[in-house]
Design a protein that fits this description.
mainly alpha; three-stranded antiparallel beta sheet; 6 helices; 3 strands; 10% strand
Length: 142
């Protein structure tokens, strides 16, 4: 996501999305945006202006593309302030998104597409058996 550029957003389309280059398949993938974040993204894009930088995420101090070091420093600072637990990493957000989709009953193949996993095995790693949910499925049979 650090390579995301301002013109990767498709906010004028009927289906709001972000285009992301899929290097493994040599094509763009289009990922849907949640409606609740659109006002914030539109406000940010408007405030930033299109001529400032092509990159979406910028360093606050240098005004250049934000790098992995900046993300690590941000997470470290948030942990120091007690806003993140010590074991949280940027990848945890992606994993939580995947697990939440699966727990909400989204089809594993659709989750695979959203996560851009080329292998179903990568998506199945996030499937956790939830005893309460399994009980609900059994109860549906009665």
């Amino acid at each position: 996501m650090l390579n995301l550029k301002m013109d990767d957003f498709r906010l004028n389309d009927k289906n709001k999305s972000i285009q992301i280059w899929n290097g493994k398949r040599s094509r763009y993938d289009y990922l849907p945006l949640a409606g609740g974040v659109l006002p914030d993204i539109e406000e940010y894009l408007s405030a930033r202006g299109l001529n400032h930088s092509p990159h979406f995420f910028l360093s606050a101090t240098k005004g250049k593309k934000w790098g992995y070091g900046g993300v690590r420093r941000l997470f470290g600072r948030l942990k120091e302030l007690g806003l993140l637990t010590p074991n949280i990493t940027p990848h945890n957000f992606r994993a939580t998104f995947c697990c939440n989709l699966l727990n909400k009953g989204v089809n594993v193949f659709e989750v695979q597409a959203l996560m851009r996993h080329t292998s179903l095995q990568s998506t199945l790693f996030y499937v956790k058996n939830n005893p309460a949910r399994l009980q609900e499925y059994v109860d549906k049979l009665l």
